[in-house]
User: Fold this.
Amino acid sequence: MASNKQYNKILNSVWLLLLFAMAATNVYAQRRTRVFGVIKDDQGAPIELASVRAVGQNALTFTNLKGEYNLWCASEDSVRIVYSMIGYETRKRLLRSPGDSVRLDVMLPPFDSNNTLGTAVVTGQGRQTTTTQRITQPDAKLTPSTTGNGVEEIIATQAGVSTHNELSSQYNVRGGSFDENCVYLNGIEVYRPMLVRSGQQEGLSIINSDMVESIGFSSGGFEARYGDKMSSVLDITYKHPENFEATAQASMLGAGAYVGWGNKKVSLMSSVRYKTTRYLLGSTDTNGEYRPNFLDYQAFFSWRPNRRWSFDVLGNISDNHYNFVPHNRETKFGTISEAKTFLVYFDGQEKDFFKTMFGAATLTRHFNPDTYLALQFSTYATQEHETYDIQGQYWLNEATTAEQLGVGTYLEHARNRLRARVMNTGLRFRTKLTGHTLQAGFNWTRETIHDNSREWEMRDSMGYSLPYNPTALNLIYSLRSKSDITTSRISLFAQDTWRIRAKIGLFNLTYGVRLSHWDWNKETIVSPRVSMGLLPSFSDHWTFRFATGFYYQAPFYKELKDTTLTNGIATVQLNRDIKSQRSIHFVFGADYLFKVAGRPFKFTAEAYYKALSHLIPYTVDNVRVVYYGRNESSGYAAGVDFKLYGEFVPGTDSWLTFSLMRTKEKIDGLSIPRPTDQRYNVSLFFTDYFPGTTRWRFTLKAAFADGLPFGPPRSDKSKQTLRAPAYKRVDIGMSYRLLNNSDRHIQRGMGRLFKNIWLGLDCFNLLGIDNVNSYYWVTDITNTQYAVPNYLTGRQINARLSFDF
Assistant:
């Protein structure tokens, strides 16, 4: 008997040591706020078992017999607390920049359907002690948008982020490619189609702005719980509506409708969106019949039968068609002294088809308000067809002398087919110990990809086929490949948040590790990450933070394709020796909070350095990233980002960002700019109301970004050192509130049905600037190449109408 007791003591000690070991290797860099108080009814009697929760977080508690509650929640910029009890009205409190401890005593009156009170708001400013910032989402229905993807367009205006294509929702972060950005939706990683070649072909993002509750974004130095990407993380959480809500909108670029409903146990959101860029594409240099049609349906269901269990299901279907019959094109480019014209007449057409499906389910066991275990399952499937046969007969002339520089014909052909399926099963665990918040997770991913590519290009100049050979007829480019691949990945992470009080101030220490293994190349990567935030005791206005860690870009299918070009003939092999690209981040940042005319502002500055190794060189073809398929280079990215955020106008959020950056890579001893080497970037997002009224709202979006490096297609990297002109664009939107019935005071006519009705008018590319998206290269018989710019959209007017029910 004694030996059994001794054995049990030893076993308990081992478990205790393992628990503390987990605490020493976990990271979750979020500031914790304690919200406490008493909940009473209108007679002053305490209400027991009333629920108190933080919206968008797994923070939930219940009142005791005395009506007392104590809730710990993560806090960065703002926290919304919801108080509810069956038979009583629900109350909400919005805490902006809550302190370490906030007392809120709440009175819940008995439910009366004829009497509802508004939400009380406690104003203040947020304190960000991690590299993940909480972004306030403007009303997407009231802002000018060319893509219909409101969240990504807001991300593109943040410090360190840029975009050079208003037709695309893709963005670059601190010198990284589009593929280096990780996107999570309700804790599950999402993917995008792989064959999309240009922004014209892009459909709607899976992120529906009407369904979003919170947006978290990190441009570097993010936590171990996020996946193996080198640049950024976008973390989206969907909301759980507690009442009926609905919106509908339409414009010259598409339409959409959203319906949400819920109570304390069940919530359901459903949406349908339609997008077409036919109107925008009509302003480009290439005239033709544009028939792009993008359709998206999405639903999110949540069920909480009791306080111990919750079940969430998310589904999305996207059906995208891009059909194009080009007619002719005339492009004028060059300088005053060397002006040129490029005239093309077309035959043929392009027909592309991208259909994607995404489904996810999460079953969560809540052991107590601070501890849960979640089982996740998700699947992503895509079927992509890219088909075109386009012949162009072109004339390249000097604009002033009419001298012919090149006359010829080109014929482009493609029959590309791709099917892919990604299945993921995972576990998530979270709990709290004294002074620590622990998280851990496990993922198993299965990837199956079938790719069949057939494409070639023929060029003729002055009656000679290029490349010129007097004894043979050759194509300037041809590719034929077929690949089938099935692989598995395993990843684990563990992280902890440790809050430390010292004389110098309050520290938030975040440390953790991520481990991944891929059976394709038998590679195991270990990614330790750590960050620290300081709220100094000498000032309430300053916040300091530092982050560092190893970040890997685990290869996906595109990185595996080792393409060798010999005399215009491309051969493709899947590289089993490919390794993950690596980036070591060093990020130092500071925030300064201040007020002007009683309005809150925040100035943020961050400096960073990223040491890059095992890089896979790539080129960018519009929005497609084309990899070399081999780890051939190393490099760096370094820069500084600045952001001024605040209420430039009372009651509205606006911001101005400015970034300086340099990124280079070394290949065969030669140091050259990376394709995303953007040396400067300025973004502005500004909102305003007309004086004396809130019916008129004005929104301005502006971008001024350095041009990116480029060079001849399918050429050596040493020739990819030319630089495109700077990207300059201004979009404005004007909105008029036709009906304002948010509080339902109006009980007649339209007031019985609608909460708000907005009329809007947008002007895209207000200044009418011809921005260059890419280049088409013309080659003459002497092998001289001319870069003809492909311009983006011109000035366009868009009308829109939206309803809130």
